[in-house]
Amino acid sequence: MAEAVKETIETTLEELEQPRWAVISFERLERGNLAYAAAVSLLNDLDSKGVAGLCIVTDEVAARLAA
Fold first, then answer.
1. What residue spans define the domains of the chain?
2. DSSP 8-state code for residue 38
3. pLDDT in tens, 20-52
4. CA distances from 48 to 33, 35, 41 (A)
5. By CB atoms within 10 Å of each CB, which of 21, 37, 48, 61 scores lowest?
């Protein structure tokens, strides 16, 4: 059981490091193809500038919203 948990955590961390994340707002796709940490940084930057409705999603979801 502990090994399965360890594998799940490692897989999740790998996914967060992949450039597959996007930041969206109420208005548009702000930027995609980001590692999760970069998406968090962008979200915080945009939030400090008053951009409303910010959310981090996968690029796949962002593409559906843009269509």
1. 2-66
2. H
3. 999 999 999 999 999 999 999 999 999 999 999
4. 22, 20, 11
5. 48
